[in-house]
């Protein structure tokens, strides 16, 4: 039996605007959310979507023959990335403190504090939710911040840092948020794309930059 024969059919990703797509909740990631950005010359898949036949077909169509880069924002977003890589052959990039969690990947790279992809997306290490948590900033023309589990949807267009039983180090997470404020260009104000479950947004997928101002300034 092939991998595709063993998988559920699943739901297709939803196109939000142009090259930005969002996937349905991934049970392997506690209902977390994966994103696709079709940037050139190297599109990116941010965190692992549900591994279904529909997902694999959608990713092949979105890539259109290109080799995409899989960016993992924390161990909470790893999902079944090994099987995904086996099916697609795409390389994986993760912050160095979580690379050890992915033994056996055929193409795995890591970074320390910051990294810039071939398409100009910028990664920043933001420990707290997990030791190797990071965020991905896609500057203009996209202007989106993929914030992983650093910020969690808590209400309609409202995100907040939330401690839970899996939180690595809460005070460090708060410091990472302050570091993020200084790192993002002051005139950017990107939309926020969380890697957590999005149900609290009540149908919305993205939140505005100010959605977390009050929480950070408490």
Per DSSP E runs of 2 or more residues, the count of β-strands stands at 14
Spatial extent as radius of gyration: 16 Å
> What is the C-level CATH assignment?
Alpha Beta
| Residue runs with pLDDT of under 50 for 5 or more positions | 214-218
Q: Summarize the amount of helix as a percent range.
A: 10-25%
CATH topology tier name: Metallo-beta-lactamase, Chain A
Count of spatially separate domains? 1
3D shape: globular
Q: Work out the strand percent.
A: 15-25%
Amino- and carboxy-terminal Cα gap? 54 Å
Number of helices: 5
Order of helices and strands: HEEEEHEHEEEEEEEEHEH
Main β-sheet description: 7 strands, mixed
Structural class by secondary-structure content: alpha/beta
User: What's the CATH superfamily, by name?
Assistant: Ribonuclease Z/Hydroxyacylglutathione hydrolase-like
CATH architecture identity? 4-Layer Sandwich
InterPro entries: RibonucZ/Hydroxyglut_hydro
Protein name: Lactamase
